[in-house]
């Protein structure tokens, strides 16, 4: 579960991470559509993969858990899991963004004799509820070999997130929500060859126009799309 501290950091411009490990950035809340929080989803190469609407700041849908849910703050290239460091007291990073400590490793001989599958014993620090959850892992860091996306897998060494001081993420321009007149000009954001580009269209009442509209990707002006790019990248747009 995501903590209130992490939620505030995301509102202030920090990158979040989904349950399946994807990097995301909060773009803003669309007041024209009830309970709609917009996120930019990134690929492993740090390119825009998709824009996605959430029902709450952290959940794709209100009543169901999904792989798209925001579970914590994104950490760039975490240090690989090192058992020696973990046993020396350094915290580890779990797939859901939680912090955990490993306090014991059952030796191989005892493990083999008693058919024990998970040798590492430790505790998960739950900052949201203030609880400590005792858990066990395999030496590789795997928490559950059956589930392909177990939240409690150890994926690296923990690093304290850097504080986020300010952001303009709440000033996101609003996409259009109503069909345009025939031949009206509009703009959309795209990513090609690792670069953000602005596409210029004319409304023809075609299926593609309505898909853009339904996905809240249509902006009235080129400057609106430029602002979105600057929010995503955190730097001025150069190709005006």
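^ Assign residues to that structure.
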């Amino acid at each position: 579960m995501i903590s209130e501290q992490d939620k505030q950091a995301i509102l202030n411009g920090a990158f979040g991470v989904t349950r399946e490990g994807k990097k995301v950035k909060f773009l803003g809340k669309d007041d024209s559509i009830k309970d709609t929080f917009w996120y930019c989803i990134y690929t492993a190469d740090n390119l825009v993969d998709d824009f996605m609407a959430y029902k709450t700041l952290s959940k794709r849908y209100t009543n169901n858990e999904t792989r798209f849910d925001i579970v914590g703050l994104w950490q760039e290239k975490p240090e690989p899991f090192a058992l020696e460091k973990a046993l020396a007291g350094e915290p580890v990073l779990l797939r859901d963004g939680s912090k955990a400590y490993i306090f014991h490793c059952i030796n191989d001989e005892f493990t083999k004799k008693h058919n024990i599958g998970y040798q590492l014993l430790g505790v998960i620090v739950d900052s949201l509820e203030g609880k400590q959850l005792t858990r066990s892992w395999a030496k590789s860091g795997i928490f559950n070999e059956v589930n392909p996306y177990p939240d409690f897998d150890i994926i690296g060494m923990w690093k304290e997130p850097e504080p986020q001081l300010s952001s303009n993420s709440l000033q996101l321009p609003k996409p259009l929500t109503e069909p345009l007149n025939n031949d009206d000009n509009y703009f959309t954001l795209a990513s090609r060859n690792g670069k953000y580009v602005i596409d210029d269209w004319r409304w023809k009442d075609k299926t593609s126009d309505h898909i853009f509209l339904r996905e809240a990707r249509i902006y009235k002006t080129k400057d609106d799309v430029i602002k979105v790019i600057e929010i995503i990248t955190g730097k001025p747009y150069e190709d005006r």
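The radius of gyration is 22 Å.
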